[in-house]
């Protein structure tokens, strides 16, 4: 007896040759399958390349971001004792006092809350761009007539121009320049808090800086080139900490800004990754159908002596090769996409970006895309190993490829690990990584479940009595080699992303709009001094405006918890108490009861204990984060006077109401004599009334500020619009990928269905009938996919509404139906478009062409 | 040593909850250069027997020795290596790879073995079957007879010890059939290959030295063909 010969060992080049030869008639088609990954890779490369460019630009322009080498800032004037040390810092310095205030534009008499920055000079670094250019150069210079530089956003809003004047508090200044760009301030920041620059010398004259006003005091320093600013700050750190002064250096700003934008690009690249995954699902599905076509050829190869591994390698090389082509196309497109991103993200960016192709990003995108495509393609390709050569003898051979394959499980595991690894690399958080993985799993499982349910329902309740066209179209949904699962998943996921975006945006806007409706307050007046209270109230009354709520506010600092000083607690890293709890300025109010927007959770409402100690009420989330419990003592410094309190109860806040909310509420009878200011809430029914109140306030009580909720609403809408544009742009890759997957699915099913359509036409079916069958099939698929995606999005938005935003949920039905109609029409349209060949040509011509 | 030994070969399938025996205790032995026909009506087990003899499938019981190698316990990949080294195939529906040219189809078994000068051998074989000028044509561009001749060239490319032919003329008209059969026997004689021919064409079977007649999976008869006795003599 002889032993079996060793396995045939052809040269590796033969595997490549066979892969090339075998792909001859399918290259265009295979490339279309691989096109599914192009957009995902493009999005990934685009975002990561942009992220690299942004990081580099931030590094290059860090000094411009800060506008100085060092900025010191505090909530109170710098302590006099520090002055000798501070005076010796740097070679030049600029002082700034910043606060929010109503400003009035003349002669238009428009009033708006703005950020006032009173500076003793310009910025040391970066472009402070103004119109005219000389305005920035002359700002604060001795001998120059005082004037204000006003943000372009404000001037545009009120139709004001250089030469007009602006009233800030008690002073009226000519507008000497329009500010187009301020170092370190993005367009986004300007929209939220537009700025008016005035000379620092005038700040006292405005009368706006008073007791209780929220004011930031800043000093910017320029150092001699080569100075180690961080080392200088280190020597001052203890004194700065004691004086509650924050130090911001170029290196610190670089790190902070770089980190937040790295986070942004990382999260956006997760959205891109979803598009890539979607494309990979399309690849797997297309390769699955391709493999079924190739079973006969594989059986012949096996018959001629090729091993299962060799046969698998031939097709793996083929798909990987085309995957590489797809990945390269994607990377090239990505390099183009990144040049669009600065325009998409423009308003959010703090620096001007210099664009160049980031090769690490390109290589990473190529590798990620190719690896994912190959892994997903491997799932169907694995069955090639098990193709029996007996297929060459028997056409209807029993299914040799359907038995469970443990390697398939391994590949699925690798895909899962890769996805989690990628998500972790982007988020650096296991919680978010697992959330992302679970979210994907749920979305994919839910959509695939819907697809299966549809197939089951159609089969189970098949309408045998319906016309032929309907029966044929419906049967196509569950017949062997159907595309139902793939299309419902890919098109459904795209629709899900779009619908979720729409619903979440509507939720956020709805929440803000809710606040501005009905009898709720729409104008908040704050920084009212006690002696001004009666006057402001009578101003409102004279205009027939109600005082909906009046709240006194006292500022204080926490000095100890349960007798341990905050200084000691700050040093003890084991307490788990966040630093802001220990160092923030507390703005508290006092009353003996809870109001309508508060709910008692534990203990009592604010009251005084038997010994007169105040039993304060704290917000429930604050209690948890500050690691407090009922009965704990909190020592406060109320503007110089020490005060011990006991945590007597906790409250939950309804934040959707327009009311000042407080972490800490004192009982009445404790703080009445403390320095305080007041907030008044009112409601104006017309914009004219609103303008009148604001103008009167500026005239009579210039330090009192007013927040117009209508303006807030439009600002929020504007911000959400900008954010949603960015997300929509990214989600667009998923939608387009879904459509590409749809196209390739339709094209491959055309190859499968062509014989059947030809047979039908040979048997007498008209083109119209074939067209209607196709329309029914793809129309139903599109309808189901869109409804599944929308259903999932409604569930997700409902969960967000209930658990995150804590508001009622009632989705707008009409736009969602519109979206469903659009997706259905697109799916049916692409289905028909790709089947046009079969419809247009004669049966014989098609049969010959398909070989 | 016999080139093919089949010993008590039985094949059963599980079908609709009960066992279906498609081949029952078949035994025979062939010597090098023998020509052998397996005949029988449809469903008699001819193709099943051919599949088992060529190592395309496993028997439920019994053994197959091919060129001294017992196939029963070999893995599918080991049997693939045996096929590549010792076996050639011809099929009723030609089974050419549609995306490969005629020449590339003939090259496959040679390239699989990593043989040097494969192209020269393949071209010589195509020339032998009269298709040297069609070497760069794809199967779809060839007639049925031409495709079967390419298939013949491929079958002899690796100089097999055994050639299995499954209804080689089943898809051809009589004239083309005759040309292909002549070529088959000529090539077989030249190469000294053992030929196992599955057919229900009794005239074709009669051109071999010996016929095994099957019915219902069992051997009905095993006899020498008198008219063509000693065809190689």
From TrEMBL, chain A:
UniProt keyword list: Cell membrane, Membrane, Transmembrane, Transmembrane helix
Cell location: Cell membrane
Record-linked InterPro entries: ABC3_permease_C, MacB_PCD, Membrane_comp_ABC_pdt
Membrane-crossing residue ranges in chain numbering: 30-51, 267-291, 312-337, 357-384, 405-424, 436-458, 485-509, 725-749, 770-800, 812-833
Topological relation to the membrane, as annotated: Multi-pass membrane protein
Domain MacB-like periplasmic core: 31-236
UniProt keyword Ligase present: no
Domain of life, source organism: Bacteria
Pfam families named in the record: FtsX, MacB_PCD
GO cellular component, one term: plasma membrane
Segments forming domain ABC3 transporter permease C-terminal: 270-389, 729-830
Protein known as: ABC transporter permease
The species this protein was found in: Hymenobacter glacialis
Lineage of producing organism: Bacteria, Pseudomonadati, Bacteroidota, Cytophagia, Cytophagales
UniProtKB/TrEMBL annotation, chain B:
PROSITE patterns according to UniProt: ABC_TRANSPORTER_1, ABC_TRANSPORTER_2
Cleavable signal peptide: none
Single GO cellular component term: membrane protein complex
Keywords: ATP-binding, Nucleotide-binding, Transport
Domain of life from the UniProt record: Bacteria
Molecular function terms, GO-annotated: ATP binding; ATP hydrolysis activity; transmembrane transporter activity
Stretches of the chain forming a coiled coil according to its record: none
CDD domains associated with the record: ABC_MJ0796_LolCDE_FtsE
Annotated ranges, domain ABC transporter: 4-233
Entry's family note: Belongs to the ABC transporter superfamily. Macrolide exporter (TC 3.A.1.122) family.
Name assigned to this protein: ABC transporter
Species this protein is from: Hymenobacter glacialis
